[in-house]
Amino acid sequence: GSRDATWETIRAILETHPHWQAGRLTRRFGHQSALLAGFSVAGGLAVVTMDADGQHPPRLLSTLIDEWRRGAKVVQMIRLAGGAEPWLKRITSRLFYGLFSTLCDVRIRPAAADFRLLDREVVDVILGSEGPAPFLRGLIPWLGWETVELTYSPDTRLAGKTKYSLGRMIRLAIDGLMSFSIVP
After folding, report:
1. What is the DSSP letter of 59?
2. 33 close to 133: Cβ distance less than 8 angstroms
3. Which residue, of 6, 68, 125, 149, is most buried by count of CB atoms within 10 Å of its CB?
4. pLDDT (tens digit, 9 = 90+) per residue, 118-132?
5. Are 93 and 167 in contact (CB under 8 A)?
6. Do residues 154 and 79 lie in contact, with contact meaning Cβ atoms separated by under 8 Å?
7. What is the dihedral angle through the alpha carbons of 10, 113, 115, 68, rounded to the nearest 10 degrees?
8. CA–CA separation, 49 and 83 (whole Å)
9. Chain CA centroid to CA 110, Å
């Protein structure tokens, strides 16, 4: 869904790294669906998800991999407070995670990011799930795999602005609550 030269850059990189893979969606389907599409083309023993805007520090990848090698099936990164995140985003995020954990009987750690490592076994279970695109921030803790939590300070965004509007955040929150709620 990028409107810049992202895909052309990826294709150029693939020419020098033929063992790497990339997938391109035909249109915007939402970030949960994009993550699932990435899982479906990933072939490794572990999969790392991270944003391409530079806020998820690549320098921490070796730390995630080390925890996985020690046996963690999920290595979940937790964003430390104090970054450039707007106050409204911080407050609504905390409210949502608290509400979700109460209504859905699944505890989502506040400030849990989509920056994580998943073992192949976890990825395969997620890909085997039926129904619409799952709410991964709820599904992954609900599955119950051994999880190691690590904290990180987000780096400065490399370029551009977030495209995750308040409306998109609300839609994601509703999707998550409707997917997992145990309260009528």
Report:
1. G
2. yes
3. 68
4. 999 999 999 998 777
5. no
6. yes
7. -160
8. 20
9. 14
